[in-house]
Amino acid sequence: MGIVRLSGAGCRAIAATLLGKPPEARHAHYLRFRDADGAVIDDGLLIFFPGPQSYTGEDVLELQGHGSPVLLGQLLRRCLALGARPARPGEFTERAFLEGRLDLAQAEAVADLVSAGSEAAARAARRSLEGEFSRRVDTVVEGLTGLRVWIEAALDFPDEEIDFLAAPELQEKLQRVAGQLDALRTAAERGRRLVDGLHVVIAGAPNAGKSSLLNALAGEDRAIVTDVPGTTRDLLRERIRIDGIELTLVDTAGLRDAPDVVEREGIRRAREELAKADLVLAVVDATATGSHALPLPAGVPVLWLHSKADLLATVPPPATRADGRHLWLSARSGAGLDALRAALRDAAGLGDGVEGSFSARARHVDALRRGAEALARAAAQLHHGAGELAAEELRQAQDALGEITGRVDADALLGRIFADFCIGK
Ligand SMILES: Nc1nc2c(c(=O)[nH]1)N(C=O)[C@@H](CNc1ccc(C(=O)N[C@@H](CCC(=O)O)C(=O)O)cc1)CN2
Ligand SMILES: Nc1nc2c(ncn2[C@@H]2O[C@H](COP(=O)(O)OP(=O)(O)OP(=O)(O)O)[C@@H](O)[C@H]2O)c(=O)[nH]1
Ligand SMILES: [Mg+2]
């Protein structure tokens, strides 16, 4: 089946024309869809949802026909002739947002739900769609509002006996909100990884066994493997799933000073990709002697993988060294791959399961980071007794968080001040 869906004030008239009588609300009418000359296009169901009880909150009309692109195209053209226009991408959800039926984070969750690559990601998107993420953002925003109310009041009544700005309760309140914001950031970062999938880049010297590792994890012969150093040049991306968690693995050209222009370009791309990684799998040949130093970007977590362990007399157990965690494995025998999968799950921050997670995006994580930074600055200003500056930083924190849900409400603060304090005395 296919559905032509319409939203807006013209729906009722279009429904009446197609049906030959006014539609009943939320009733499935069976009918023949006809073109302007009365020729039958298709038979199907017509459902009219009067606003505001509809997906967009406006009048909505659904025409459910056979799932043929040709027939649906004819049905669509019939609707256009009756006064409709084609929707922009995401416009139904945009209208639902503008009608106040969804906030921004919920609207984004609709897209995340549709594109979810795993059951865990779909469940997380459902939670965001149902407002779980938004509610937690709102809780922090309320906490920030409470702090501002306190500070603004202290500034308005400087002659009080007690110095409200130095009150320990204010510090406690601030710590509590900062703690909530921190926990929310961690959760949102998890949610972003669930939606985007962890971005894992395989790096190492030529011939270290990078492409063989990609093939072993993908369970497919995706990358070319030869004993010629410098086999891989282009980036090769492969989406794999571990326990319902999706991640992108990227195979790269072996890092070395290459004389060949093509290989040099491959190495340049490898470095570019490394800078964007959530995690680097640094592959070193376990049978090679000498230093395994690699030119890796600073600040990116690294997991060291000693490959070709099937060639060793004894396989060392996993170890933690100054430069990070080390695992020994063999793409050929499969030894150590389960330990690697477990490490990847941990790296996704999802080691303890994904239950209770909600979906989030880089935009949200960034807004939460800016909010937390502004809150930290507010605490510092308060420490110096600079109440006005602290209040301004708190407002910035609030604005940053407001971007997530699309609710930035200046009047909310005034409302709270007048509700909580008897200023009119
Ligand atoms: N046929 C069809 N299936 C669909 C959709 C659709 O638009 N049409 N959806 C498109 O995304 C999803 C469901 N989302 C929807 C969300 C709200 C309403 C709606 O009419 N809400 C009203 C009535 C609620 C009620 O009766 O309890 C409301 O909220 O007031 C409809 C679909 C998935 N399946
Ligand atoms: N014995 C053994 N040989 C392996 C293993 N993994 C890879 N090799 C061999 O090592 C050689 C290089 O493997 P590749 O996977 O192509 O190495 P690479 O790191 O992708 O090399 P470049 O693309 O050239 O940078 C090949 O001959 C593989 O067969 C392993 O687990 N055990
Ligand atoms: Mg390779």
Strand order of the largest sheet: 6-7-5-8-9-11-10
So, CATH architecture of the largest domain? 3-Layer(aba) Sandwich
Under CATH, the topology of the largest domain can be stated as Rossmann fold
What class would the helix/strand composition place it in? alpha/beta
**What is the total tally of β strands?**
11
Rg from alpha-carbon coordinates: 29 Å
GO molecular function: GTP binding; GTPase activity; metal ion binding
EC number: 3.6.-.-
Family: Belongs to the TRAFAC class TrmE-Era-EngA-EngB-Septin-like GTPase superfamily. TrmE GTPase family.
Domain TrmE-type G: 197-349
Characteristic key phrases:
alpha/beta; seven-stranded mixed β-sheet; binds guanosine-5'-triphosphate; four-stranded antiparallel β-sheet; Rossmann fold; Four Helix Bundle (Hemerythrin (Met), subunit A); 46% helix; 425 residues; binds ligand FFO; 11 strands; Gyrase A, domain 2; single chain
